[in-house]
Design brief:
Elements (H helix, E strand, L loop, with lengths): L1 H22 E10 L2 E10 L5 E8 L10 H17 L3 H16 L1 H16 L3 H14 L2
Helix pairs in contact: 2-3, 4-5
Length: about 140
């Protein structure tokens, strides 16, 4: 596995160094937060008419469906800012409404998450299915 990672890293380095640096600026930022490691690469053409950004997050853990509500709302607010910056107002409206819904339903969601944990622990999977469906409807 490590051999392939090194191969792809070398390929990326070769491609990015030879192509993007000839036609513009390539900026790379790396970091780590509570969700894992991340890398953001931004390419800007010399005249500034073309700009794109890639964001890659890696994590050694399986994503949890019961993400902390404040973290999820914070992530959505960051996404909302990016959508407004890109002037994707239709998607921004959807994200804004989702944030409002999550904020309005946060107490119910927390309560249902606790009930879901109990149902799973007690192996009451029929109830767990009902709770899961209620959570999905509140998080839309």
């Amino acid at each position: 596995m490590n051999r392939f990672k090194n191969f792809f890293d070398d390929f990326d380095s070769l491609f990015n160094d030879s192509f993007f640096n000839q036609f513009g600026d390539n900026k790379t930022e790396k970091g780590k937060d509570s969700n894992g490691d991340w890398v953001r690469q931004t390419y800007t053409s010399k005249d500034g008419s073309i700009r794109y950004t890639t964001f890659i997050r890696t994590s050694g853990k399986v994503p949890q469906s019961k993400q902390d509500m404040t973290t999820r709302i914070g992530d959505l607010k960051a996404e909302l800012e990016l959508l407004v910056e890109k002037q994707d107002f239709e998607k921004a409206c959807q994200v804004r409404d989702l944030i409002k819904s999550l904020e309005d339903n946060s107490e119910s969601i927390k309560k249902l998450n606790k009930e879901l944990d109990v149902a799973i622990k007690e192996q009451n999977f029929e109830r767990a299915i009902q709770i899961r469906d209620e959570l999905k409807s509140l998080q839309k």
